Amino acid sequence: MNEVMNLPVTEVKGIGEESAKQLEPLRIYTVGDLLEYFPFRYEDYQVKSLEELRHEERVTIVGIIQSEPTVRYFGKKKNRMSVRVLIDQVLITAVFFNRGFLRKQLTLGSEVTLTGKWDQHRLTLTVSDFQKGRQDGERALEPIYSVAGKLTTKTLKKYIYQAFQQFGDDIPEPLPLELLDAYKLPGKKEAVFRLHYPTDRLAAKHARRRIVYEEFLYFQLKMQAFRKLSREQSTGRTIPFDKEEIAQFIKKLPFPLTNAQQRVVNEILNDMKSPYRMNRLLQGDVGSGKTVVAAICMYAAIRAGEQAALMVPTEILAEQHVQSLQALLQPFGIEVALLTGSVKGKKRKETVERIAKGELNIVVGTHALIQEDVHFHQLGLVITDEQHRFGVEQRRILRDKGETPDVLFMTATPIPRTLAISVFGDMDVSIIDEMPAGRKAIETYWTKPEMLERVLAFMEKELLAGRQAYVICPLIEESDKLDVQNAIDVHAVLQQHFQSRFHVGLMHGRLHPSEKDDVMQQFSRNQIQILVSTTVVEVGVNVPNATLMVIYDAERFGLAQLHQLRGRVGRGEHQSYCILLADPKSEVGKERMRIMTDTNDGFVLSERDLELRGPGDFFGAKQSGLPDFKVADVVHDYRALEVARQDAAKLVNSRAFWEDESYKYLALYLEKEGVLSGEKLD
Ligand code: ADP
Ligand code: MG
Q1: Which protein residue's CA is at the shortest distance from atom 15 of ligand 1?
Q2: What is the number of the ligand closest to the CA of 261?
Q3: Quick one: which of 146, 465, 528, 546 has the most CB atoms within 10 Å?
Q4: CB crowding 549-580: b at 16 or more within 10 Å, else e
């Protein structure tokens, strides 16, 4: 956005092509990248007085040597040296390990600066850094950078310093004065400088606050601008369904809707009826009944003469959705078509043709559905299921497929509310926060793998009562590196155990789609009582007679995923159980198992997981749709995120933002990001 920040990093004196290569792994390509390559923490060398010292903390003190050092040797290389030091009229002991060679420098009466770990009870400092004389102020806080490859911290610091020399004065200020004033934030130049060269912690904190806000504001501006533009320029369809017809449809469903389902149905139908183009996220915990909501909306669409598509991530899920939708829609004479990778040849040709002619009005499929050669006659509604993993860009690409269909994203991943509004700031959000009546809470237990015999006894009891069980394993085959149970082994063990009494099926990602389909069919028809599987059954699969979910190596899964897996049971009238076989070594790992046994509520679980691990882990690596922030942390700084969201919404809706000079950089940023090429939006 500004020439200086965008200059290639080789413009910095001392950085040639070779050095530039070394900076690439750190994703430093421009002068701006270099100047904004911030330290991830600071080493504190601020000299403290005796009374400021806290037990077990790493501290720096200045004192006078009061004794000859004594050194004890243990073998050739090991030694322990101790010396008495006077600070603030109190004698303490300084201990050095394996640094006997320093003894000559510790002369009686000389002043020294010592850094190390403080033991308040023994008045002892275990020294990690020693300097002669009083080393005060100068390097009070030392920035620590992460480096990679051949690049050393020293060289990196040199580059940053040089970049400041040449370009420091030209760092532009993207934020308007009024915002800086409102939040008492330092200017950009000052903040960037202070993060590299802080005078003290407070200054660093202050500078960080500024950058966090700026990062969030950019992010939210993009979201809010998308949202505004798609609303304004939306030539979205008005889908003129007949309300009474929908009411009749709902009345004839096999069950009454929950209040929450009714509420979200209204929200979605309102969007569809309005000329705005719908861009809505529907969140609902596993089993909350999203499928029927989708069915109602699709019904509304086709009654108004439009086609509707449901897009899902896996073939199995697509097939299941076809079944459940068919069951709901067949009584109304509506055909539900399937289009996935395994629909081939003549069948595919025929399906595609009928879609193009508008003879097939409801199509369920994988990504293949909305790709090139598939043309809809009149596509009015696209629903995606379990696609929370999409980022903002992908969401936009999807919306731009077809001719301005309304888009509904469904997800069972319970995204904490605080995050949802921010991360999905460009969308409207509907939440199903209520389970269908009469659902029994799944009982979850955590046990060590050694207890397998007892787990199998329990399984047998359930099976004898006519129920079915899932057994989930992390990997397909034995791996050298990971000592994990694998589906194939476990399948063999269970077959051996249950012999001919029960049928054990096996399902994993390497099976041919038609084989998967077979296995799944057999399981739904109760021809197989135990289904051993990898996580391919994770999403959406619905077999209400299954009441037991056993998960091997549960500590290897994320909480969100465990919750998804658990959601495969508890879908019918019978009491269901989830057993986690896990032996986590870390405290966090144990805590996660406890969280699973404590709560069935996906939202509670996600909040606690978030506290425990942060958002990156929660969503699965790099799949959150969140940009990479340089310093901001969505969890830690969520208040700033919320403030930035409100400010961004206000800004994009103000005239001044688009016309005033003081917002130039922010507006330019949006242009650069392609947000403003609004014509393309629809
Ligand atoms: P999910 O939100 O996880 O996709 P589903 O749509 O698969 O949940 O619904 C789970 C089960 O609950 C299905 O068997 C469905 O028929 C049933 N169901 C959905 N809504 C209701 C309701 N209002 N009352 C009773 N059962 C319902
Ligand atoms: Mg579902």
Answers
A1: 289
A2: 1
A3: 546
A4: bbbbbbbbbbbbbbbbbbbbbbbbebebbbbb
